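haha ok so turns out i had the wrong file open the whole time. this is the CORRECT one, sorry everyone. sequence first:
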Amino acid sequence: MNAIQLQQAVNISLTKQVQETVQAQASMLLEGFAQTQQSVQEAQAAHPSLGKVIDVSI
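then structure:
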């Protein structure tokens, strides 16, 4: 294996590792987003008028 082939092999390996890392990060991001959305929906279900009605007393 010459230097150019070695460099190409290393570049391919690094590219695969970066791709796997990005996929893992995206998966974690989407999972966190889904959990946040679920929490928001549960909060709205517990308070159906949340954000729609303002109670004011003078």
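The chain is about 75% helix and 0% strand.
again sry for the mixup
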